[in-house]
Amino acid sequence: MDLASSLREATQRLAQAGVPSPQVDAEMLLAHAAGVSRGELLARVHSGKTVEDADLAQWDKLIVRRENREPLQHLTGTAAFMSFEVKVGPGVFVPRPETQSLVEHAIAQAQVMAVREVGLHIVDLCSGSGVVAISLARAVLHASVVAVEASASAVEYLRQNVDTLAPNITVVESDVVSFGQSVKDASIDMIVANPPYVPLAEVPNDPEVSRYDPVMALYGGEDGLDTVHEIVTLATRALRPGGYLAIEHSNLQGDAVRFTLKEAGLRMVSTELDLVGRERFTQGFQS
To answer: Closest by alpha carbon to 129, among 82, 173, 79?
Structure first.
């Protein structure tokens, strides 16, 4: 069977398994098994070339795992975000494109913030694979960025990604409350976070999320906002006057998060949209 026919068959298998993007995933997994880019793989398909039998056998194993809805990023070991890729796998939250909106707003804000004598101090809480911290460190070269993550499994990926992509970032293994105990009042210019925010009673629809994303990165208490409250408590003490806070949340939590920030005394509170027009994160400024 030629590559084009094999890809059609694999695409059909993934479609029957309910995979949202079966053709792209089939191509990505074959390219990964063959050790080439997706573009090079497609060039081989169109030119009638093939790949090694061992690569095809490895590809079939990957297709079986993807049929079981194991995330594509776990199978390839990487996830794309903004203009770079990070290493991911079991134990760390796979970054989503929706987070890009928070990052773009945070970068724009950091680039216009007044820099104090001690420099610009940015903290990324619940950092996971590190995509938010890395994006900020690469875009705002005069900033000192700290990435804070409580999960030991996630920290392993975080350290690898930081070492490769932004070695100037400081990695701290800690939960929000413990980290806050080590931070001086009014010492931080910006806090950003993509915390766990799924309510305990909710089960995510996608098997990739419910079966494979770490529980610690998903669930945020009864209403999903336990960690959000911890972050706001830290921000009201640790942000300097005029400091910036941005917290990602679900498209159903905008009202609650805006209320929380306003009750804490932050000003100019607003909820911004993600790339598909859904409420995705709420921002505000320290009084």
So the answer is: 79
d(CA 238, CA 176): 12
Beta bridge partners of 53: none
Instruction: Please report, for the chain, the start and end positions of each structural domain, with discontinuous segments joined by +.
Output: 3-68, 91-285
176: nearest Cα among 259, 233, 225: 233
**Which tokens belong to 89?**
């796998």
Interatomic CA distance for residues 243 and 236, integer angstroms: 9
Token pair belonging to 162: 């930081």
Contact assessment for residue 126 and residue 194, using Cβ atoms and an 8 Å cutoff: yes
pLDDT at 1 over 80: no
Find the mean pLDDT for residues 170-176.
Answer: 98
CB 147: neighbour CB atoms within 10 A?
30
* Average pLDDT score over the chain: 96
Mean pLDDT of 48-59: 92
Distance CA 75, CA 33 (A): 10
CATH class of 91-285: alpha beta
Task: State residue 49's pLDDT score.
Answer: 85
Q: pTM of the full predicted structure?
A: 0.95
